Amino acid sequence: MTRILGIDPGSRITGYGIIEHSPRGYSYIASGSIRINADYFPDRLKQIFDGILEIVDLYQPEQMAIEQVFMHKNADSALKLGQARGAAICAVQVTGLPVFEYAARQVKQALVGKGSAEKLQVQHMVKILLNLQGELQIDASDALGISLCHAHYRQTALRLQQRALK
Prior knowledge:
Elements: E1 2-8, E2 13-22, E3 25-35, H1 41-59, E4 63-67, H2 75-95, E5 99-102, H3 104-112, H4 119-129, H5 138-165
Parallel strand pairs: 1-4, 4-5
Antiparallel strand pairs: 1-2, 2-3
Helix pairs in contact: 1-2, 3-5, 4-5
C-alpha cells in the first residue's frame, strides 16, 4: 500500500489530496486546501511551504505528485504559479519524499480519458473513483486527481516491469 500526496499549487489557494493505493484499489485519506492570507508574496510562499510540511507530518505520505506549470496568457501569473509550485516541492524535498510531476493533460487523460476534459468532469471522476459523496472543493478535487493520476501511472509502470521480467 502506498500513500500519495497530490498537490494542486496556487499562490492564493493550494489544494492537497491524499489517497492510499493498493492492488485492491484506491482509498481516500484526506483533502483540503491551504488558503494563503498574506499579501507580501514571499510570505505567501512561506505559508505554502509550512502548510505542506504540516500536511506531510500529519498524514505521512510516501510519495508526492504535483501538476507541472502550464503557460498562462499572463506571464506574471505563470511565474507566481511556478514559485508556489517550487515552495511545495521544496517542502517535501526537505522530508525526503520523492516528487513526481504530471502535465494537466496527463491528469485529465488518466481520469477522464480526454486530455481536454473540463474541471467538473475531473471532479466527477475523482468522486466516482474514491466513492465520495457530497461537495468537494475544486482545488482539493484537482489535487486528488493528481494523486490518482500518479497511482495509475505507477501501477502501469509496475505491470510493465513485471511483464519484462517474464
